[in-house]
Amino acid sequence: MNRLFHVPLSPFSRKVRLSLAEKKIEVELVEERYWEQDPDFLRRNPAGKVPVLRMGSLTLSDSVAICEYLEEVHPDPALMPSDSEGRYEVRRLVAWFDDKFHKEVTSKLLYERVNKKVMGLGYPDSTNIKAGAKAIKYHLDYMAWLLEQRRWLAGDTMTLADFAAAAHLSCLDYISDVDWNRSEAVKDWYAKIKSRPAFRSILADQISGFLPPPHYADLDF
Asked: What average pLDDT is seen over the chain?
């Protein structure tokens, strides 16, 4: 059985989970408290980060590398375009969310509100939270601009770019940090991707000490 070492509210883990589920690859989820630096986990990934995917004799780390590996060995359904320009745009947007969005928003909101408490690192920094709340408006507006021109974020078909964005936003939605009324286009996009079967296990996540808002698992939010 394939095994994915993950954290439920890790956007990087969720991106891989979405890819696996969309491609109907069965996997056992193993929650990993990576911050405790367990020697067995560090042997799987010396970087000490989740996700880590065990597939047969292979141990795979880094969410981008894992998703592209899955795309190569399980190409159907495709989550990358067939043309080079399309693949470039997907990779650009995946990097946007996993780097820029993560640095400016996810790390400022999710990590301050949830990760610090779970890891025993003290209280949230209000300055960071205010910065994250301000920055997410810019990112939602950018997504709205993209969706005014495209059916999905990177083009006319759903791709890894959509899963990268949805992974981050679903984590933030769990703690009610997304203003879905800011953009009807973004709200409609999220409702569309949220309704896919691949999203079911993510919507069932429960984090001890943190209850999701009533709309979190509502497909008609």
From this structure: 96
CA 169 vs. chain centroid, Å, equals 7
* Contact yes or no for 59/52 (Cβ under 8 A): yes
Which three-class secondary structure string do you get for the chain?
CCEEEECCCCHHHHHHHHHHHHCCCCCEEEECCHHHCCHHHHHHCCCCCCCEEEECCEEEECHHHHHHHHHHHCCCCCCCCCCHHHHHHHHHHHHHHHHHHHHHHHHHHHHHHHHHHHHCCCCCCHHHHHHHHHHHHHHHHHHHHHHHHCCCCCCCCCCHHHHHHHHHHHHHHHCCCCCHHHCHHHHHHHHHHHCCHHHHHHHCCCECCECCCCCCCCCCC
Per-residue pLDDT of 111-128, as tens digits, reads: 999 999 999 999 999 999
Counted residue by residue, the chain has a size of 221
C-alpha 137 chain-centroid distance: 18
Tally the C-alpha atoms within 13 A of residue 13's C-alpha that lie toward its C-beta: 24
Q: Nearest-CA neighbor of 79 among 198, 209, 183?
A: 198
